[in-house]
Amino acid sequence: SELRKELLDAFTNAGDSFLSGQYIADLIGCSRTAVWKHIEELRREGFELEAVRRKGYRIIRTPEKLTADEIRLGLKTKFIGKNIFYEESVESTQKIAHQLAYENVPEGTVVIAEEQISGRGRMDRKWHSPKYTGIWMSLILRPQIPLTKAPQLTLLTAVAVVQAIEEMTGLIPEIKWPNDILINGKKVTGILTELHAEADRIHSTIIGIGMNVNQKQEDFPNELQTIATSLFIEKGEVITRANLIKHIFANIEKLYFLYLDEGFFPIKLLWESYAISIGKQIRARTLTTTIEGKALGITDEGVLQLEDQHGKIHSIYSADIEL
Ligand code: BTX
């Protein structure tokens, strides 16, 4: 907003000096309480502010941005992330990536936003994507594979993300089939794979990755309090998002080349080594029905196999899993 811009300009001009609450209030024409609210909002977005009685406020640190330059520096991939579209605020990075995919941008193009106003999950569910604290991005890939194999890319991406988290934090996340990445039982990342196809050929896959990085517990809305977590909450340290993204890109590319050369089998083995549901009693809610049984594993295609109490084996292509 305009007020926000004025406020940030004032802090910029002040440099290392403090701005008093009254000064700010006069400047932007609002009450002291409103000033305090603006300051709190800046904090939520990752600004670090020092507040000293009778002196006022000053900015000590601005939030880390995810601009293309930030990510390109030191990026060692051949094609993933070489072409980056960076936005401050978007409805959904998926939407933009779909548009770009139609325009035939090069494979490996990524759309990244600091904030999504209507980030989405599967089946039109919402994905909470607050400013500066997470990684909200969509990657365009164009593998020459039949449509039925597209879900394998979700599993491949999950492995790449888990390994990136491990490399950056030492935390070891678990994967809940098909697309949830959990730490201590709470969701830290969601993956959404969407497609453009012609007949039975994939034109583009758009892989959306939503990752909670530096949120504090109170940054999550009520309905996510018990089910969501961030790397900051689990590790107790602020994580540099740009570095994490570089790890994710490198890992996806490595696994993708492996996948194109040797097929899904090596990916499947890696995926199973991180999966929590395998061998356990689970409940799978599909669009039409709910099946309970033991998760036997995934097929070479990436389809979940569930054995019910009568010994019948069900192939689950898409569902929500309860452990
Ligand atoms: P999903 O359908 O498996 O999960 C959605 C559910 O997860 C929601 O209904 C809610 O309960 C929970 N949830 C919502 N936001 C969060 C969050 N920040 N952390 C943890 N849990 C949450 C998962 O769908 C796939 C999400 C993909 C998101 C990426 S972000 C970049 C790209 N753009 C976009 O609009 N979506 C993708």
Automatic annotation (TrEMBL):
<dbReference type="InterPro" id="IPR045864">
    <property type="entry name" value="aa-tRNA-synth_II/BPL/LPL"/>
</dbReference>
<dbReference type="GO" id="GO:0005524">
    <property type="term" value="F:ATP binding"/>
</dbReference>
<keyword id="KW-0067">ATP-binding</keyword>
<dbReference type="GO" id="GO:0006355">
    <property type="term" value="P:regulation of DNA-templated transcription"/>
</dbReference>
<dbReference type="InterPro" id="IPR030855">
    <property type="entry name" value="Bifunct_BirA"/>
</dbReference>
<dbReference type="InterPro" id="IPR004408">
    <property type="entry name" value="Biotin_CoA_COase_ligase"/>
</dbReference>
<keyword id="KW-0804">Transcription</keyword>
<dbReference type="Pfam" id="PF02237">
    <property type="entry name" value="BPL_C"/>
</dbReference>
<keyword id="KW-0805">Transcription regulation</keyword>
<dbReference type="Pfam" id="PF03099">
    <property type="entry name" value="BPL_LplA_LipB"/>
</dbReference>
<feature type="binding site">
    <location>
        <begin position="120"/>
        <end position="122"/>
    </location>
    <ligand>
        <name>biotin</name>
    </ligand>
</feature>
<feature type="binding site">
    <location>
        <position position="116"/>
    </location>
    <ligand>
        <name>biotin</name>
    </ligand>
</feature>
<keyword id="KW-0678">Repressor</keyword>
<dbReference type="InterPro" id="IPR036390">
    <property type="entry name" value="WH_DNA-bd_sf"/>
</dbReference>
<dbReference type="InterPro" id="IPR004143">
    <property type="entry name" value="BPL_LPL_catalytic"/>
</dbReference>
<comment type="similarity">
    <text>Belongs to the biotin--protein ligase family.</text>
</comment>
<feature type="binding site">
    <location>
        <position position="187"/>
    </location>
    <ligand>
        <name>biotin</name>
    </ligand>
</feature>
<dbReference type="GO" id="GO:0016740">
    <property type="term" value="F:transferase activity"/>
</dbReference>
<keyword id="KW-0436">Ligase</keyword>
<dbReference type="InterPro" id="IPR013196">
    <property type="entry name" value="HTH_11"/>
</dbReference>
<dbReference type="InterPro" id="IPR036388">
    <property type="entry name" value="WH-like_DNA-bd_sf"/>
</dbReference>
<feature type="domain" description="BPL/LPL catalytic">
    <location>
        <begin position="69"/>
        <end position="260"/>
    </location>
</feature>
<feature type="DNA-binding region" description="H-T-H motif">
    <location>
        <begin position="21"/>
        <end position="40"/>
    </location>
</feature>
<keyword id="KW-0547">Nucleotide-binding</keyword>
<keyword id="KW-0092">Biotin</keyword>
<dbReference type="GO" id="GO:0005737">
    <property type="term" value="C:cytoplasm"/>
</dbReference>
<comment type="function">
    <text>Acts both as a biotin--[acetyl-CoA-carboxylase] ligase and a repressor.</text>
</comment>
<dbReference type="GO" id="GO:0004077">
    <property type="term" value="F:biotin--[biotin carboxyl-carrier protein] ligase activity"/>
</dbReference>
<dbReference type="GO" id="GO:0003677">
    <property type="term" value="F:DNA binding"/>
</dbReference>
<keyword id="KW-0238">DNA-binding</keyword>
<dbReference type="InterPro" id="IPR008988">
    <property type="entry name" value="Transcriptional_repressor_C"/>
</dbReference>
<protein>
    <recommendedName>
        <fullName>Bifunctional ligase/repressor BirA</fullName>
        <ecNumber>6.3.4.15</ecNumber>
    </recommendedName>
</protein>
<dbReference type="Pfam" id="PF08279">
    <property type="entry name" value="HTH_11"/>
</dbReference>
<dbReference type="InterPro" id="IPR003142">
    <property type="entry name" value="BPL_C"/>
</dbReference>
<dbReference type="GO" id="GO:0009249">
    <property type="term" value="P:protein lipoylation"/>
</dbReference>
